[in-house]
Design brief:
With 326 residues, this protein is α+β, with helices and mostly antiparallel strands. The chain folds into 4 domains: 69 residues, Winged helix-like DNA-binding domain superfamily/Winged helix DNA-binding domain (Arc Repressor Mutant, subunit A, Orthogonal Bundle), CATH 1.10.10.10; 50 residues, no CATH class; 81 residues, Roll (SH3 type barrels); 89 residues, Alpha-Beta Plaits, CATH 3.30.70. The strands form 3 sheets. The protein has a 5-stranded antiparallel β-sheet with strand order 7-6-5-4-8. A 4-stranded antiparallel β-sheet has the order 10-11-9-12. A hairpin with a 5-residue loop joins strand 2 and strand 3. It is elongated.
Length: 326
């Protein structure tokens, strides 16, 4: 069969529109028919024909009934090709590069393999952008203890399905206790993974380092989730104060917003106190803690512990003695 130029042009236009339609369906969960037709600059009748074409090609496009009608890309038997714009492709490449240095066992190898596949099909202009960004970036986050992906998936499923867990847990001194918990969320700080859960025996919310969890078991018992406390604050308190020998409360003459912008949640947590704020933080050496407080650049008063207040006075007196007023 010989096609004339008009027919060839129509086929190319239809093919390009199908790719655009597939890209739109992949970009969000639900679309109304009129909205899709407007984006594609076609009639709703043409849209229905294009949806039928995608279905014949094996894409499970689901239709919803209603006045406006709607479409959704369903779950198929195979992973369909992903259509990415320039910014999305660069974002995924950079994300894979970052994941290749992660703390999940085996994830680095999988990320490198996926990145290799992606880079093979990236246009030269995009490959250059990715290379420029990754080759000029140095990560100072370090690496934390590795966790097994199967264990992370089990914990994540327990959170999603509201299923109780049992496991052994090692504290900072390698003392093991048996825990029964109602899991809520997994939290990643970049270097470590934490499970936020309600401890049934202690009837309180706790955070557990995932690399210290041993032999987790799904009990098969479901629970009704209860409203948790602020997750960011809970994890921050657990990792920035509780593990340290010196645990301080410091009143700082600056707004909560100013101090929170300077202190990451892995270092301390901040609560409002009128026009000022109180910083909760910790360290294993008092002088390190004092140096950090001075480095914030705001006047401060140590509220707790009294030993730290005394150490601040001692250092302040020594500095004044060696730097007398002219």
């Amino acid at each position: 069969m010989v096609l004339d130029r008009r027919q060839t042009g129509e086929m190319l236009e239809t093919s390009a529109r199908l790719l655009r339609l597939l890209s739109l369906l992949q970009s969000r969960r639900d679309w109304t028919g009129p909205d899709l037709a407007h984006r594609l600059e076609v009639t709703t009748r043409t849209l229905r024909r294009d949806v039928d074409r995608l279905r014949r090609l094996g894409y499970p496009v689901e239709a919803a009934s209603g006045p406006a009608g709607g479409y959704r890309l369903g779950i198929g038997a195979a992973l369909p090709p992903l259509l990415l714009d320039d910014t999305e492709a660069v974002a995924i490449a950079v994300g894979l590069r970052t994941a290749s240095g992660g703390t999940v066992t085996g994830l680095a190898e999988a990320a490198e393999a996926a990145l290799t596949k992606l880079e093979r099909v990236l246009p030269a202009r995009l490959r250059d952008r990715v290379d420029a960004l990754t080759s000029s970036t140095v990560s100072l986050t370090g690496t934390g203890p590795a966790v097994e992906p199967a264990e992370l998936i089990m914990l994540a499923r327990a959170c999603r399905e509201s299923e109780q867990l049992r496991f052994g847990y090692l504290d900072g001194r390698d003392r093991r206790t048996e825990r029964s918990v109602e899991p809520h969320r997994l939290v990643s700080t970049g270097r470590r993974w934490y499970l936020v859960a309600r401890d049934q025996d202690r009837d309180d919310w706790r955070t557990f380092r995932v690399d210290r969890i041993e032999d987790p078991v799904l009990t098969g018992r479901r629970f009704t989730p209860t409203a948790p406390p602020d997750l960011a604050a809970l994890v921050s308190r657990s990792i920035s104060v509780a593990p340290y020998q010196w645990q301080a409360q410091v009143k700082i003459r600056a707004s909560m917003a100013e101090v929170a912008a300077q202190v990451p949640p892995t270092v301390g947590w901040v609560e409002e106190a009128g026009a000022e704020c109180v910083l909760h933080t910790g360290a294993n050496a008092p002088d390190n803690l004092i140096a950090h407080l001075i480095g914030l650049g705001h006047p401060f008063e140590v509220l707790e512990p009294p030993e730290l207040r005394a150490r601040v006075r001692t250092l302040a007196t020594a500095l004044l003695d060696t730097h007398p007023a002219p």
